[in-house]
Every structure is written in structure tokens, then in C-alpha cells.
Specification:
By secondary structure, the chain is of the alpha+beta class. The chain has one domain: Roll (Nuclear Transport Factor 2, Chain: A). The protein contains three helices and six strands, in the order ααββαββββ. The chain has a six-stranded mixed β-sheet with strand order 2-1-6-5-4-3. Helix 1 packs antiparallel against helix 2. The chain is globular, with a radius of gyration of 14 Å.
Length: 117
Amino acid sequence: MSDDLMRLEAAVNSLTKEGKILDSIEQYYADNCVFIESDGSSRQSKAAQSEHLSGFFSSLKSFDGATLHGQAAGDNYSASEWTFNMTGGDGGKIEWNEVLVRTWENGKVTSEKYYQK
């Protein structure tokens, strides 16, 4: 399972790196996926996450890139470490440093938790 899971993790991360985060959610996430923020708040479905991110991305002037620092997978869990660079609507630079931990079942992400560094 680890090889298959690593291929799935790499596919999600490839789309993320290209700035196609909404596409990755549509393809690789279960409809009832739970998304948990570092402050403990959550969204309870793929649709809710897509709506949340669509609103966030529309508030940006630009998505300037995503750097994948590392990824790992095993035992139905995967993790990836990222730096996201964006320009806010006001022109200010935004940099997020995050670790994303995903739980997988039957080839789909069923939960994703964010840890900010």
C-alpha cells in the first residue's frame, strides 16, 4: 500500500505545486473529507473546502508559487511540508509554511489537517 499511497500523494502534490489545488481536491478527496485548520476549526466536506478556497483565491492578486520541501506516506497516512507564496489583494506578500497530514481510504483523502510552522 505504501507505494500506491506515495504515488497518490505525489499526484496531489504535483497539482498543488502547479497551483491547481481545487483540481486536486476534486480528483483525490472524498466527498465527506474533513479539513482541520491549525486552530482546530474545520470544514466538513469537499464542497465546503472548495467554496472556502475559491473565496480565498479570489481575494488574492496572485498565487506566486508553492515549494514542496518533502513528502512521506505509509499506513494510510501521508504528510507534506510546503511554503506557499501569494500576493494579497492589497499587494502585500503572504507566505505560509505548512505541514499537511492526510488520512487516506480507498484511494481518497478522508481528512486533511494543517500544521503551520
